UniProtKB/TrEMBL annotation:
<dbReference type="GO" id="GO:0006865">
    <property type="term" value="P:amino acid transport"/>
</dbReference>
<keyword id="KW-0472">Membrane</keyword>
<dbReference type="GO" id="GO:0030288">
    <property type="term" value="C:outer membrane-bounded periplasmic space"/>
</dbReference>
<comment type="similarity">
    <text>Belongs to the bacterial solute-binding protein 3 family.</text>
</comment>
<dbReference type="InterPro" id="IPR006311">
    <property type="entry name" value="TAT_signal"/>
</dbReference>
<dbReference type="InterPro" id="IPR001638">
    <property type="entry name" value="Solute-binding_3/MltF_N"/>
</dbReference>
<feature type="transmembrane region" description="Helical">
    <location>
        <begin position="24"/>
        <end position="46"/>
    </location>
</feature>
<dbReference type="GO" id="GO:0005576">
    <property type="term" value="C:extracellular region"/>
</dbReference>
<feature type="domain" description="Solute-binding protein family 3/N-terminal">
    <location>
        <begin position="71"/>
        <end position="300"/>
    </location>
</feature>
<dbReference type="Pfam" id="PF00497">
    <property type="entry name" value="SBP_bac_3"/>
</dbReference>
<dbReference type="InterPro" id="IPR051455">
    <property type="entry name" value="Bact_solute-bind_prot3"/>
</dbReference>
<protein>
    <submittedName>
        <fullName>Amino acid ABC transporter substrate-binding protein (PAAT family)</fullName>
    </submittedName>
</protein>
<keyword id="KW-0812">Transmembrane</keyword>
<keyword id="KW-0813">Transport</keyword>
<keyword id="KW-1133">Transmembrane helix</keyword>
<keyword id="KW-0732">Signal</keyword>
Length: 313
């Protein structure tokens, strides 16, 4: 395993198509740089995907390039648990890292034959279209705009926002928050859209914004707010770290899908990665996938039923 750090400050700009809610939380705007690196001019892509597909030769697929090279190059991050972050020993870990290791193992029968290119969220698409990485495994939200620039794999997680409560607090579940109306105060990270997001679930709640996740958590601990609005994966990670201190209010909204992304125009590589992911979710590598979900999210996945493939039921 090797790591290259290319996480640079995000470019200034605004990208209505490709910036996800998570990007905004991390202040990772950078549409201008993305558009320039991706070769997008005036809303069009310089190289039409149909033309790329026509020039695709099976022997030129990324799959065979990676096999010949002898290692996988993955674009990812390093600062966002439980997806990709450094543990106390400095080792890169997280759900995205587990998936990258599984791809390497499926290619070379060796989890360690992977090089990580550490990058900001705004570099995910440029690193693919410039062929700097083989695949991006970096909590990437699937959108129609992004799908014009990259090919997405099948999703491996469904994200959404929710509310984390103190386990011994005044409110026990989401219905309590909703019925309390204006009396409820919800803490969240500063964001121009945060008031709208909170009120999609809790129309009458008061919203208090903070400059960091730690500040929101401190406010919750001090009972200055009744609940903490966050991505559900982040909530689950915090609850894993502090058992019995916090609880999920039990309702999520604003769903979005996380998937990996590859450079467009290579159906062989895309189909192969999809096969790895599908069999991790439903087949031979299910135990590995389920262990990751348990470790990072505290979620116990049900064992796939034997017999007729349930995904086609």
């Amino acid at each position: 395993m090797s790591i290259r750090n290319e996480d640079k400050p995000a470019a200034q700009g605004q990208d209505g198509q490709t910036v996800s809610r998570r990007d905004i939380f991390q202040l990772s705007a950078g549409a201008a740089g993305v558009a320039a690196a991706a070769g997008i001019v005036g809303g069009g892509v310089m190289m039409p995907r149909a033309a790329m597909a026509q020039t695709m030769d099976n022997s030129k697929s990324k799959l065979y390039e990676v096999l010949k090279r002898g290692k996988l190059i993955v674009g990812t991050g390093s600062t966002n648990p439980p997806w990709h972050f450094e543990d106390r020993s400095g080792k890169l870990v997280g759900m995205d890292i587990d998936l990258a290791r599984l791809i390497a193992k499926s290619l070379f029968d060796d989890y360690e034959k992977v090089e990580y290119v550490i990058q900001g969220s705004d570099a995910r698409i440029p690193s693919l279209v410039t062929n700097k990485v083989d695949i991006v495994v970096q909590w990437m939200t699937v959108t129609a705009g992004r799908a014009q620039q990259v090919d997405f794999t099948i999703p491996y997680y469904r994200e959404g926002v929710g509310v984390m409560l103190m386990a011994n607090g005044k409110y026990k579940q989401f219905a309590d928050l909703k019925s309390a109306g204006k009396a409820v105060k919800i803490g969240a990270m500063q964001n121009v859209f945060i008031e709208e997001w909170v009120k999609k679930g809790l129309p009458e709640a008061t919203v208090e914004q903070f400059d960091s996740p730690d500040s929101v958590l401190q406010a919750l601990n001090a009972r200055r707010v009744d609940g903490y609005l966050a991505d559900q994966s982040a909530m689950r990670w915090v609850m894993q770290q502090f058992p019995n201190r916090y609880t999920d209010a039990g309702y999520g909204w604003m769903p979005n899908s996380y998937a990996s992304a590859v450079r467009p125009g290579d159906p062989i590589w895309l189909n192969w990665v999809n096969t790895v992911y599908k069999e991790a979710m439903m087949g031979v590598d299910f135990d590995y996938f389920a262990a990751s979900y348990k470790k990072w999210f505290g979620i116990e996945l049900p064992t796939p039923k034997v017999g007729f493939p349930q995904e086609f039921a």
